[in-house]
Amino acid sequence: MSEVYAARRERLRERCAGVGSAAALVSRPANVRYLAGAAPHGAVLLLGRTEDVLVCARPPGEEPGAERPDGGLRTYVLESPDGDPAVAGAGQAATQGAETLAVEEHHLTVARHHALASVAPSLRLTDLARGVEQLRLVKDEEEISCLRIAAEIADQALGELLESILVGRTERHLALELERRLVDHGADGPAFATSVATGPNSGRGGHRPTDRRVEEGDFLSVCLGACYRGYRSEIGRTFVIGTSPADWQIELYDLVFAAQRAGREALAPGAAYRDVDRAARHVLDAAGYADGLAPLTGHGVGLEIDEDPQLAPAAMGKLDACVPVTVEPGVHLPGRGGVRIDDTLVVRCEADGGPELLTITTKELLAL
To answer: What Gene3D superfamilies would the database entry show (predicted)?
Structure first.
């Protein structure tokens, strides 16, 4: 993997050279991990004029289960763990003779930015903007393999939950059980806070589990994901508890399923982000559910659960092959509940079979 990280850093170096900077300081943890193989707490990566350096407050790998950074990358540990690796990194950039240093202004605080400028006044600080995030958009097959395993773990955890007795258990209890099962199946941990929503809570995006108990006839919406080697999956499903679904539940479920299918089918290299959103949103708009829809239909996944691209009405840009995204439309009816269906997919060209579905738990409306 050392060659992979070196190649990523070289791509960033070329991007920096294009804007007139011979050095860059990467501070956002997911970006550090992408370029260095690991992101010890507080570490920054200096893409130097003569040498690349991972600057850490403490020796990397001290925490239990911590990953080791790229062995081909020099690591510099501060003499005092209370020091700021970013400030030390800027000092090293100046020592290497850099005149300009590109920094991630969207991640640095104003105070930290001022500290960088004061420690190396000869450096001209410029904005790296979201340069690393743009490199992260398209995943290589090793990254996709990690995402695929993360999706398999989430599918396993959800499948086991569906085989258990649900009536009478609280949303909070079910969420905790799902997160335990994720770890049991090999996940680093949950990709995000697991959401379990029952009855009138169902269908709400980002619902935080409560002590409400599952009742017969409820909609049950579950959204969870696994983190595997830093890469994160997401899956969301809605079920009916105990009895055959009511007519309104079947109608609403079929509608959201149609919207989700339209969004999935719109995924293709060259498709505009907003066109994917429009494909799913149009189905729900036409049925009279325009008000209260989520601001986006999906988003990218990778080292973070919510990364570029954003599949939203005003989003600018077009999809590339090998970009993993979610498609997750939903409808919530206040006081009654609702439906959310969420998958993680990888954009593929038609010659490769079209979008690759990573989360494969059935989307039938099951009565549990």
So the answer is: Creatinase/methionine aminopeptidase superfamily, Creatinase/prolidase N-terminal domain
* Radius of gyration, alpha carbons of the chain: 23
Whose CA is closest to 42, among 7, 21, 66?
A: 66
CA distance 230 to 26: 18
For residues 275 and 355, give the distance between their C-alpha atoms in angstroms, rounded to a whole number: 15
- Classify residue 297 by burial, with Cβ atoms within 10 Å: 0-12, 13-18, 19+: buried
Per residue, what are the HEC states of 144-172?
HHHHHHHHHHHHHHHHHHHCCCCCCCEHH
85/88 Cα distance (integer angstroms) = 5
Q: Supply the DSSP symbol for 212.
A: P
CB 185 within 8 A of CB 177: no
Cα separations in angstroms, 303 against 38, 82, 112, 233, 308: 11, 27, 24, 10, 11
Q: What is the pLDDT of residues 152-206, one digit of tens each?
A: 999 999 999 999 999 999 999 999 999 999 999 999 999 999 999 999 999 998 8
